[in-house]
């Protein structure tokens, strides 16, 4: 068995470079699997070199080997995506050329563009994580089946859910179990009704209502990580955060779900599952979206995905 854990960061770097090639293919129709920004990186390093023929020759020799290795890693990653995703991969590989073949839903492209956005904290880019949370909650609900329901709880929320964390959790309790679970009962050391926003790391709840209306329903609780610091977010949604406010949260242990528009290397995918629960990255979420392409809610979401792609892509242009 290969050691995917030790090379997880190296593989992730190849994934980042492959993403850049894919974005170039979307903009231009095709792209060659070379390294984006390579000339700029070289010029910066050459500026730091003292002028000397032997130094420069040695530099270029090392850089040629480095470039060959990096391009090989990108090609390997693009081929991996094509093999794993099959017809759902919105690109075609022919030799060293990548050709864009738009997906049915546009979800893969939407996620890819989010990952190219340098900042998600400034307008209009703040709309990207907010849309991602809502779309992903809906996709998971559709994936699990018609009997399941979902509610977006991430901050900022719709006013109907509740602007404060307390009101939002009251809504969760009411709509999921008629106040039998997610029962607000703070630790005595905490305020009874805190007038604060936030979300406790809880971006959405997906649940299956029990047919007999008794306690013991099944829940998926989710957290979304849209920034390039996603690998620091595995523990943002912890049971202790919820249990200090609600007793009980759920009678049956809920399933934690970690979602991200990034595509994880095999080693990071394994590590994330170990630390964050059920992990849904760009590839797995794309399968959910494309498999449900004919679902009315997915069809309705396509204009949103397209407009969000345009916003994200504008930052990466």
Question: Can you put this structure into words, describing what you see?
Answer:
The structure is a single chain. By secondary structure, this protein is α/β, with parallel strands linked by helices. It folds into two domains: 8-100, no CATH class; 107-316, 3-Layer(aba) Sandwich (Trna Endonuclease, Chain: A, domain 1). Helices cover 48% and strands 11% of the residues. The strands form two sheets. Strands 4-5-6-7-8 form a five-stranded mixed beta sheet. Strands 1-3-2 form a three-stranded antiparallel beta sheet. It is elongated, with a radius of gyration of 22 Å. The protein starts with 7 loop residues before the first helix and ends with a helix. Residues 35-47 and 59-67 have low confidence and may be disordered.
Biggest sheet architecture: 5 strands, mixed
Helix content: 40-55%
Tally of structural domains: 2
Overall mean pLDDT score? 89
Net shape: elongated
Determine the N-to-C terminus distance: 40 Å
- The SSE order reads HEHHEEHHEHEEHEHEHH
Would you identify the regions where 5 or more consecutive residues have pLDDT less than 50?
35-47, 59-67
Order of strands across the widest beta sheet?
4-5-6-7-8
- Assembly type of the shown chains? single chain
The proportion of residues in beta strands is 5-15%
Number of strands: 8
CATH class of the largest domain: Alpha Beta
Structural class: alpha/beta
- Give the CATH topology of the largest domain: Trna Endonuclease, Chain: A, domain 1
How large is the count of helical segments?
A: 10
Identify the CATH architecture of the largest domain. Answer: 3-Layer(aba) Sandwich
Radius of gyration: 22 Å
